[in-house]
UniProtKB/TrEMBL annotation:
Organism (species): Nonomuraea cypriaca
Highest taxon, organism lineage: Bacteria
Pfam families: FG-GAP_3 (PF13517)
Gene3D superfamilies cross-referenced by the UniProt entry: 2.40.128.340, Immunoglobulins
Protein name listed in UniProt: Fibronectin type III domain-containing protein
Amino acid sequence: MAGGTDHALHLTWREPVDDLGIREYRVYGSTSSGAQGTLLGTTRTPGFTHGPLRAGATWYHRVVAVDLSGRTTDLGQVSGRAGTPTRTDLNRDGRDDALAFTRGGAADVYASLSDGGKFAQDAWKWHDLFATDQEIALTGDFDGDGREDAVTFTRGSAADVYVSLSDGGRFVQQSWKWHDYFAAGDEIPAVGDFDGDGRDDVATFTRGTSADVYVALSTGTGFAGSRKWHDRFAQGEEIPAVGDFDGDGRDDVATFTRGTSADVYVSLSSGSVFRQDGWRWHDRFAQGGEIPAVGDFDGDGRDDVATFTRGTSADVYVSLSDGGRFVQDGWKWHDGFAGGDQVPGVGDFDGDGRADVIAFTRGDAADVYVATSDGDRFLPGPAKWHDHFAVGTEWPQPSQIS
């Protein structure tokens, strides 16, 4: 069978019975059904990951087993369609939606679904007691059903993690604890599918001098344990981020030094650790106090980086991943987006497989603007997608709020 993930297809098959044993499997792929296909690679185990792939791409795979004598057996054909990378797709339509967490004592959660050109609903409450006080609320598909769910981190000494799953019309559970000690103190929590199993997991960055990174993998009903995946990443006050930068279907980590150095470092996931140490992917990106973000802006199956200058300039710059570095320097994709103190974010709001940008004005205006990507820029405008969402100091998602 083949299963679609954000940027890759994972193939698995039954190991055939062979008197001599299997030496290797050869995996062939084609975009046409019935074709012999080209050799994509070989593996000694009954599984293979094909990526990076553009969102929506359909591939047909053929697996051939080779035994120790060199005899081959065709195991047949499977097909799969690469998924559309999403962050806040609440109803599984392939388009990211908007969320607002009131936090504080009210702890309400409101949603507005994308119809491809606007966020449609106003004051649609999806939960009435989630992410209280100053908890950190994020989203991810924790049970692997294709709908993004809500997670909140209490941090501090309690360090509890609660999840509420989406049924397409609300977040269902109340007070469902998925971990009882994760992201303690002032650690920075994050969400990503680090082992590539189709369920989002959680990570936490200690930063400071220890600079450890811990991961707890999702079982579909909880986050299992807490293992150190890196012991020197995102030091001091660096800004950590998550994305699939090599397009293998497993989320990796990046860190932005900002300031005058403006370096960007990446460490790729092996499925059980983040492997690289001190691997610089860019030496001049997200300078000063700019706001960095991650998304697949050209739709090639690899996550890229963006930075928002905000303030009066309100420029947005992008640098695309080639799988081993972020290539471009000083490539401006928009010259009037997320100005002042607006809260920027990233998501695929029109469902075309390319990540777009969003800005929440919050406050009394509570406008929401979106600029969609055409693969080379964010289209001018931007367009107002909502005129009353994330009011006051509410916590919007998807966003780079901190």
